[in-house]
Amino acid sequence: MKKINRTKLLDRKHDRRSAKLIVIATEGKDTEKQYFEMFGSRKVKVEILATGDDNKSAPEYVLERLDKFKDLYDFDEEDEFWLVLDVDRWVKKEQLIAICPQARQKRYQLAISNPCFEIWLCLHFGDLFPEDRTCKHFEARLRNILGSYNKSNLDVLAYTPNVKSAIVRSRSLDLNLNEYWTSQLGTRVYKLVESILQSLND
Questions:
Q1: Neighbouring C-alpha atoms within 13 Å toward the C-beta of 124
Q2: How far is CA 7 from CA 22, 74, 90, in A?
Q3: Burial class of residue 25 (count of CB atoms within 10 Å of its CB; 0-12, 13-18, 19+)
Q4: DSSP for 111-157, written as a single string
Q5: Residue 155: CB partners within 8 Å, gap ≥ 6?
Q6: In sequence order, which residues have a C-beta less than 8 Å from that of residue 164 and are 6 or more positions away?
Q7: For FRET with 183, which of 6, 55, 101, 171 sits at 20 to 30 Å CA-CA?
């Protein structure tokens, strides 16, 4: 089957000749999609493949979603493919461990949060607290900071001014780059956001 030209993913907002595509497959349905969409520009098209109403959010389904999408289009070499996953839902971690080498072999990049994406959002506003350990803790902290927190209705304007601070804080927590994800509390989402920002500045 002939692949579709990648420019079909671009619209009038993008420079169709030179825009870079960053394709992100996420475990979540709403939060990640809303967050990453704020980075779209003429130079970068951020395409988010979120979990749908079928709730197929297990790591192997997220990987499969990205595989199928990549097979549809004729991408350029500089286009990037990312998996955004959480550790918290896969307590035994076997599923997560199994897909990481597969993803690397396919030259997909990993942005895994331990325990969840909300840790990345919290790092926009300050360092971690010792008592923050679970997703519920991070969600509660966001509610305290912002007055409310709704996964399906993210106030992206609250995060925009603090993205670079979140990168600095996240990097300081990332102590072992040889691991697929940080074994302590932390997130590799900063690597994805750094890549987007670099593409915007190129």
A1: 22
A2: 13, 9, 36
A3: buried
A4: EEEES-HHHHHHTTTSPPPTT--SHHHHHHHHHHHHS---TTS--GG
A5: 146
A6: 197
A7: 55
Of 70, 63, 32, the closest CA to residue 151 belongs to 32
- Provide the whole-model pTM: 0.93
Alpha carbons 93 and 77: distance in angstroms, whole number: 31
Residue type, 143: R
Per-residue pLDDT of the chain (202 residues; tens, 9 = 90+): 789 999 899 888 887 778 899 999 999 889 999 999 999 888 999 999 998 777 788 899 999 999 999 999 999 999 999 999 999 765 557 788 899 999 999 999 999 999 999 999 999 999 998 888 899 999 999 999 999 999 999 999 999 999 999 999 999 999 888 888 988 899 999 999 999 999 988 7
Residue 135 burial (10 A CB sphere; 0-12, 13-18, 19+): middle
